[in-house]
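Hi there,

I know you've been waiting on this one. I reran it after we fixed the sequence typo, so this is the corrected version. Both the input and the resulting structure follow.
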Amino acid sequence: MRLSGKTALVTGGTDGIGAELIRQLRAKGATIVTCGRNPERVAAARTAGFEVIEADLSTLAGVEALIAGLEGRPIDILVNNAGVGADHDFREGPPDLAVSDAAIFLNLNAPIHLITWLMPMLRSRPEATIVNVTSGLAIAPRAGGPVYCATKAGLRSYTQALRAQLKDTAITVIEALPPVVETKMTAGRTSGKMPAAECARQIVSAVESGAAEANVGMVKMLQLAHSLSPALARRIMLKF
């Protein structure tokens, strides 16, 4: 897809990978609409010249606010990037189910809702792209993050099925699978993190080429290990 002249909706574009995605897509000539829920980061993105709709996508009301804020404008590219981790480790204490529920909605339900709401618009475009940002942990989970891993695995399955449904249409469906990336969500890790700018660059490249999957960085090695032995990949990642 040629990005110049296209309009892209990128969720969670005020921080992390999303912030790099909106910068790089704009540099390629795309018009950007994004959303965020942190007032300071929303203000910073607006100061940088981006259109930002305030919306908390961990709730149905937030999804509806984002759709209302679009005001029916044409969207050529939908990037479901917004996501959040959730502490859910019984070895450390009882999990907070409210936190888990919010993560499940943001990571899985919100992309499904947005795709459903925007499908008529996307179908009306000469060409369109849906990008669902999952994770290498969608392939094999780690023991300490079962809720996050489950949501990303669910979104991976949804993406694969959606791609099959839309194979004879002008809509390209891409799954982007980042490794551990330098963001606020991974602040506790001290090494082995990919810069967000490089992760975004590889995702943008996949949009331009129309690739079905963007296996970013070390996820390529995980995919290889999984193709050779799913059980081995699971054993490795459960210790991660």
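Quick highlight: The CA atoms of residues 129 and 172 lie 5 Å apart.

Best,
R. S.
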